[in-house]
Amino acid sequence: MLTETSWSPRRQLTLTEWMRQGRSLGSVARACGWWIGDWIRYGNAKYGEKYEAAAQITGYDIQSLMNMAYVSSRFEISRRREKLSFSHHGELAALPADAQDLWLDRVEQEGLSVHALRAQLKRSAARLGSARSRAGADVRGLETNHSGGDPEVVCPECGHHFRAHAKQPARKASGRRR
Predict the structure, then answer these.
(1) Is the dihedral of CA 102, 104, 105, 111 positive or negative?
(2) What is the C-alpha to C-alpha distance for residues 81 and 51, in angstroms, rounded to an integer?
């Protein structure tokens, strides 16, 4: 039996039944961020920005809803990894699509937790920043100085070069942060 604050079996479960329930709960939990993010994006596109109404409807705070919509906007459905959590994707959302895919592959291959991914991203950014600092480059972000066209980005792990072309959605004038 499910309520908003509990799970309890209606009867004694076999080990197999208990495991099946756990798989189902895990699937639902991993999917909720995507579902709500996509739902918010649909409502915002169709009816205008509706974060306050969505907060009342779902019980989530506006900032959480904005985060879910942002992450959902940064990963086309075909690029979302079912084996990875919404939080894994959230850690990578600000990166260009090519870098996201490289990191998602790595997370899947190495079985990185969200905490481990966050730590590796920080180490990579620090190494990149240190290398740029020594070269006198702009260390503000991942984009390298590049004249004309989209800026070039270099993966600090494998050295792969690619163009940064993903645009982040404009922020509201209210000053809310993602």
Answers:
(1) positive
(2) 26
Residue 26 structure tokens: 């895990």
Residue pLDDT, tens place only, 87-117:
999 999 999 999 999 999 999 999 999 999 9
Six-digit token string for 23: 């798989």
Q: Model's pTM, two decimal places?
A: 0.68
CA distances from 37 to 48, 72, 124 (A): 15, 5, 28
Question: Residue 69 class from Cβ within 10 Å (0-12 exposed, 13-18 middle, 19+ buried)?
Answer: buried
Q: How far apart are the first and last CA of the chain?
A: 35
For the chain, how many residues are written? 178
| Regions of the chain where pLDDT drops below 70 | 130-178
The per-residue pLDDT for range 165-176, each reduced to its tens digit, is: 444 444 444 444
Residue 126 tokens read as 């620090």
Gyration radius from the chain CA atoms: 20
CA distances from 141 to 96, 130, 158 (A): 12, 12, 18
Taking the C-alpha atoms of residue 54 and residue 37, their distance in angstroms, rounded to an integer, is 11
